[in-house]
């Protein structure tokens, strides 16, 4: 079993660790206790998924709760678990009560600045990892949006307002790229509802994650804040520009040969011209 119920970007950063866990359990079936939508992206693939937010699984997160028989039966074949959860979580104790005693647990986030992927891989001191094995990768075999190959994708949101570059600057980047002959698609999800986009803008609205991954894998370029979608773009192999001013790139910069960070002490300190310079480098202009 692997347990992870965090946000999209956090899930993607654990994928190399999940691969390592699979290596240590070669030939065994893999069960994810987490978010089914994220499991569909995962490499390695999971054989089974339990929705951590389902009523069936709720007793796993309640202290001193007897597990119902149905849940015990679902856990009966689990011999070991990799758990991304805080030490105060009752999950490890609940798993033990269901017969799962071999557990590796790690707090979801490091207490000192360290690249997040390397932090997760520190769970496996018995293994050595190549640079390639330290790069998260996701399944991009889904059906992409039409014309994705010609697109520059822009995602103006994130999970926190302090990590967001001003939308008018994203708009200016888009307009100047379009003036240079690039086509632009805006990625909009629930967090970006109501964002003031240019009239007539092409929008990828609430795409299924497998469709989004397949589309990003084919894009010419992606530009975004430190967000889950940005980690997804990098894990798809898309040339990626990440804007940092409200979080630490030493920890959160996605891995990849085609990933570039534009940093400042605040998001307001990042200029349009700096972003365009990096964009032109990655698209070969």
Q: If you compute it from the alpha carbons, what radius of gyration comes out, rounded to the nearest whole angstrom?
A: 20 Å
Spans where pLDDT lies below 50 across 5 or more residues: none
- The CATH architecture term of the largest domain is 3-Layer(aba) Sandwich
Q: How much is the average pLDDT? A: 95
Specify the biggest β-sheet.
6 strands, parallel
Q: Which structural class do you get from the secondary structure elements?
A: alpha/beta
Strand order of the largest sheet: 8-7-6-9-10-11
In CATH terms, what is the fold-level topology of the largest domain?
Answer: Rossmann fold
Number of helices, counting only DSSP H or I runs of 4 residues or more = 11
Give the H and E element order.
EHHEHEHEHEHEHEEHEHEHEH
- What is the CA–CA distance across the termini? 46 Å
Please tell me the total number of domains: 2
Question: Which percent range fits the helix content?
Answer: 25-40%
CATH class of the largest domain: Alpha Beta
The count of strands amounts to: 11
